[in-house]
Design a protein that fits this description.
- By secondary structure, the chain is α/β, with parallel strands linked by helices.
- The chain has one domain: Acetylglutamate kinase-like (Carbamate kinase), CATH 3.40.1160.
- About 40% of the residues lie in helices and about 20% in strands.
- The chain has helices at about 25-40, 55-60, 65-90, 115-120, 140-150, 185-190, 195-205, 220-225, and strands at about 5-10, 45-50, 95-100, 110, 125-130, 155-160, 165, 175-180, 180, 210-215, 230-234.
- It has a nine-stranded mixed sheet, with helices on both faces. The protein has a two-stranded antiparallel sheet with strand order 7-8.
- It is globular and about 50 Å long.
- The structure holds uridine-5'-diphosphate.
- Uridine-5'-diphosphate binds near residues 13, 56, 75 and 132.
- Pathway: Pyrimidine metabolism; CTP biosynthesis via de novo pathway; UDP from UMP (UMPK route): step 1/1.
- Its main location: cytoplasm.
- Homohexamer.
- InterPro entries: AceGlu_kinase-like_sf, Asp/Glu/Uridylate_kinase, Uridylate_kinase, Uridylate_kinase_bac.
Length: about 230
Amino acid sequence: MRYKRILLKLSGEALMGQQQYGIDSARLQQYAEEIKRVKDMGVEIAIVIGGGNIYRGVQAEKSGIDRVQGDYMGMLATVINAMALQSILEKNNMYTRLMSGFDIEKVCEPFIRRRAIRHLEKGRVVIFGAGIGSPYFTTDSTASLRAIEIEADVVLKGTRVDGVYTADPEKDPTAEKYHNISFKEVIQKGLNVMDTTAFTLCQENNLPIRVFDMNVPGNLYNLIAGEEVGTLIE
Ligand code: UDP
């Protein structure tokens, strides 16, 4: 087992599956099965989930809504996704806790670092909703910050691309994939992995990031079992 404690970042957009908006239940079930497989290996799992399938703060200004208000709407969107994920994980026989970056005490516990670590040690899957709880951040930054706080071994960024490429593989057919790359090289080459805040947090705290395709069945399991899946940045 390559990692003992992981922080899995799932984008909100990934939850749409084939839909244009919202949450695709088949996709959610697929993710729950992938997560259960690694849970059964004894891996401690924390998850940060995005909200881009429902709302992003940057959209707000275009529709005349204040940016900060929009960011809070985005954070609420992540709570909706987190609640859906929590429910499906439990249906798949996992114990879970949902912790929030701001107070929503009817449905989430507040994020308390020591308590989060205790949940992980007890084998609960911990989901972090509502991002960091502050506007002008993203859930990628949340993933980096929470991973450092809970002393995770790695941030696993599950995307729909199977790693970091020399160029955008969806636009440039000659793009080549990196298996390993340093933080420095990513910056020098101007590659797009995460937003700068999220990326720098990992770099400064020596926290490796692995970018991989979460939609390929078995990828999460295989990479934890030691196979070369995705791109490792360290
Ligand atoms: N957001 C925020 N602070 C945070 C995390 C998220 O303001 O700490 C807001 C921000 O508007 C963001 C939205 O919530 O656009 C949804 O998160 P994100 O865009 O990271 O979701 P993803 O792209 O992963 O689906």
